[in-house]
Amino acid sequence: MTTPSPTPDHEPSTEPSIEEIRAAISAVQEALDSPGDAHKLAALIWEEMPEPHLLVHHLSTALTGVGLTISETTINELGIEIGTIRTADALTLITVLGGTHPPRSNPATGRNTEAIADRLRGRLRRLSPEVKVTPHPACASCAADRPHQILIGTATLEEVRLLIEAIEAGTQERERSTGRRAGSAMGRGGDRA
Fold first, then answer.
1. Which of 23, 139, 143, 188 lies 20 to 30 Å from 151, alpha-carbon distance?
2. Domain extents for the chain?
3. DSSP assignment, residue 190?
4. Between the CA of residue 59 and those of 67, 72, 85, 102, 115, what are the distances in Å?
5. Which long-range contacts (CB under 8 A, 24 or more apart) does 131-139 make?
6. What's the half-sphere exposure (Cβ side, CA atoms, 13 Å) at 90?
7. What's the CA gap between 90 and 120, in Å, rounded?
């Protein structure tokens, strides 16, 4: 009896199960004898982390530094799909990237979501010429349950690195003007990215 070869919809998972992850964590916890061991383990994890995963972490850290959250960031064969951002946060990201808000840019209205997405697309395309930026306004009946959103598509690893650097530069500029101290997401937790 032969088994059919995997199809794209039925490929075997190479991801460990949550039970396997928990077992590995338990084994590591038992093996750690001192805080120094824990520090060495953390350094080893950062050294061995695949570059796309490091960049996702650094992007998240840079965005968090300016009070932004992007959900559903994923890694794919082309690079990193940046994910979904609330329209109100997109206005902040536009400013951090050196842009200005479009006229009548109230993020509370679905009609303005497209104009805000266009402005964000313009800022992002300076760093990632092929990135797709798609507005997802909430429908009239669901606007109370979810904010208007914008999906930011896939960028290459180098383009994500440029985006992180641009966010950090914009953050430093904003913090200089307000007197707050800036930090680097790329320098936290490892320097590989």
1. 188
2. 18-48, 50-178
3. -
4. 12, 13, 13, 25, 24
5. 131/82, 131/155, 131/159, 135/87, 136/84, 137/87, 137/110, 137/111, 137/113, 138/110, 139/110
6. 37
7. 7
- Asked whether the CA dihedral 54, 55, 61, 64 is positive or negative, the reply is negative
pLDDT digits (tens, 9 = 90+) for 26-60: 888 888 888 888 888 888 888 888 999 999 999 99
Is residue 192 within 8 A of residue 49, CB to CB? The reply is: yes
- Read off the tokens for 56: 């996702």
Q: How far apart are CA 40 and CA 21, in angstroms?
A: 20
* Separation CA 180–CA 118 (nearest Å): 30
CA-to-CA dists, residue 5 to 1, 13, 14, 42, 188, angstroms: 13, 14, 15, 39, 43
- Alpha-carbon torsion (157, 61, 46, 29), positive or negative: negative
Is the CB of residue 159 less than 8 Å from the CB of residue 131? yes
Given CA atoms 14, 45, 159, 134 in this order, what sign does their dihedral have? Answer: positive
